[in-house]
Design a protein that fits this description.
It catalyses: UDP-alpha-D-glucose + 2 NAD(+) + H2O = UDP-alpha-D-glucuronate + 2 NADH + 3 H(+). With 440 residues, this protein is α/β, with parallel strands linked by helices. The protein has helices spanning 10-21, 33-40, 51-60, 70-74, 98-110, 127-138, 158-163, 175-184, 186-190, 200-231, 235-243, 264-277, 283-306, 335-344, 357-363, 373-377, 397-403, 418-424, and strands at 2-6, 25-29, 64-67, 79-82, 115-119, 144-148, 168-172, 195-198, 315-319, 348-352, 368-369, 382-385, 408-411, 428-430, 437-438. It binds uridine-5'-diphosphate-xylopyranose.
Length: 440
């Protein structure tokens, strides 16, 4: 089957590559000539483990190609996926649908034969119906269907998530469109991965509800963590004990410095807006959005305490600035709130991140970049673990502590323990939702 993919961002590129690996003929389209040139050279514009290898394998097999020309891409295609950005609109928190609607119109003008227009971007309920109307108005003679096919992949684990999903969600209006979607996902279908086929509005809603639920789960444990610190409980034990209840589940119960990334902050805001607009407010999600900001501020308070009340004149080493490991993505990362407060408070900040430098250099000015965590910690007053990259999970704590001016650690991902820190010679150690160590 021939498939066109519009947009070569995270979701578009990963989906395009994986569909080609299913055996389909995929053409990925983007308006950005630099991106297309890079992809044609075999280079992946984002950092995602395994993506370059899989992409080049399918390019070599002749199933995957890239173009600036949308008309050529959809010529003969049975399905075209819209995977363009839906950023938060300035001012009102809504998802900005300019790119989705522009793509729909371009498809309408270029398409000749029956085609299924599938939205993969996360879009508010009602958008697929709008896409249908826009296409019908732009090309009244075109034979087409629309479908909603939200994507649930996580950055850093994108290929595995796409190839082995918990479920595939498909919203359609006709059997004909359902058959095309089934054909596209046949390799998953044959391996018993469940496909939920429903109407357009429910499919759109599933994506927002799922992301908002996960953001809520994280925020819930983050608030429990704050209470654990006050009552002397250990949040790691609490989430373990909670997670063993099959109704709760143990995933997304890791307390940390607040959720970030390209989806949770944007999608929670969009869902809150949709609720308000329909006079059915999702107050729990409105609260989650607010509490996640409080969580980040609480992290800054911890760091101020560890620095003895002020950042002024201190040297702080920050390990990890991307919003999570195995990505170079800095969108809405907690580091974007925490690092500027350190710098603004007069600290000298050294940053070490395996992939964050390229984007981070623009987003975090006035910091010093170090490739090596030990060099970053040298003569520092405080080391902060902000993102749990594997590289930071097995540090030689003795070596870190002995090189520091005052050996203090803020472990905002609960990788180490107060005992391990004490043994290594740290004089202060604080983490999330656990009793810390203060010697000085
Ligand atoms: C998320 C969804 O998981 C995915 O289904 C959707 O398609 C896109 O949004 P992603 O943003 O890539 O994926 O990252 P994810 O692994 O979900 O983490 C999101 C944020 O939550 C990160 O900042 C992470 O550090 C934080 N998090 C996650 C926690 O703080 N604790 C947890 O237990 C899990």
């Amino acid at each position: 089957m021939k498939i066109a993919m519009i947009g070569t961002g995270y979701v578009g590129l990963v989906s395009g590559v994986c569909f080609s690996d299913f055996g389909h003929e995929v053409i990925c389209v983007d308006k950005d000539p630099r991106k297309i040139e890079m992809l044609e050279r075999g280079e992946v514009p984002i950092y995602e483990p395994g993506l370059d290898r899989l992409m080049n394998k399918n390019v070599e097999a002749g199933r995957l190609s890239f173009t600036l020309d949308l008309e050529r891409a959809i010529d003969g295609a049975e399905a075209v996926f819209i995977a363009v950005g839906t950023p938060t609109r300035r001012g009102d928190g809504h998802a900005d649908l300019t790119y989705v609607m522009a793509a729909a119109e371009e498809i309408a003008k270029a398409a000749k034969d029956y085609i299924v227009i599938v939205t993969k971007s996360t879009v508010p309920v009602g958008t697929n119906a709008k896409v249908r109307d826009v296409v019908a108005a732009a090309n009244p003679d075109l034979d087409f269907d629309v479908a909603s096919n939200p994507e649930f992949l996580r950055e850093g684990a994108a290929i595995d998530d796409f190839m082995k999903p918990d479920r595939v969600v498909v919203g359609v209006e006709t059997d004909r469109a359902a058959k095309v979607m089934e054909e596209i996902y046949r390799p998953l279908y044959l391996r018993d991965f469940p496909i939920v086929t429903t109407d357009l509005e429910s499919a759109e809603m599933i994506k927002y509800a799922a992301n908002a639920f996960l953001a809520t789960k994280i925020t819930f444990i983050n608030e429990i963590a704050a209470l654990c610190e006050k009552v002397g409980a250990d949040v790691k034990a609490v989430s373990k004990g909670m997670g063993m209840d099959g109704r709760i589940g143990n995933k997304f119960l890791h307390a940390g410095p607040g959720y970030g990334g390209s989806c949770f902050p944007k999608d929670t805001k969009a869902l809150a807006r949709i609720g308000q607009e329909h006079a059915a407010p999702i107050s729990i999600v409105e609260t989650v959005i607010k509490v996640n900001e409080d969580v980040k501020r609480r992290m800054i308070d911890k760091l101020v305490d560890l620095c003895g009340g002020s950042f002024n004149g201190k040297t702080v080493a920050v390990l990890g600035v991307t919003f999570k490991p195995n990505t170079d993505d800095m969108r809405d990362a907690p580091s974007l709130t925490i690092v500027p407060s350190l710098v603004g408070g007069g600290a000298r900040v050294r940053v070490c991140d395996p992939q964050g430098k390229r984007e981070g250099e623009h987003l975090l000015p006035s910091v010093e970049w170090q490739d090596d965590p030990y060099a970053a910690a040298k003569d520092a007053d405080l080391i902060v673990i902000l993102t749990e990259w594997n590289e930071f999970r097995a540090l030689d704590l003795d070596k870190i502590a002995s090189g520091m001016k005052s050996a203090k650690m803020a472990d905002l991902r609960n990788i180490y323990s107060a005992d391990a820190a004490a043994e290594a010679g740290f004089v202060a150690y604080d983490s999330i939702g656990r009793v810390g160590l203060i010697r000085a």
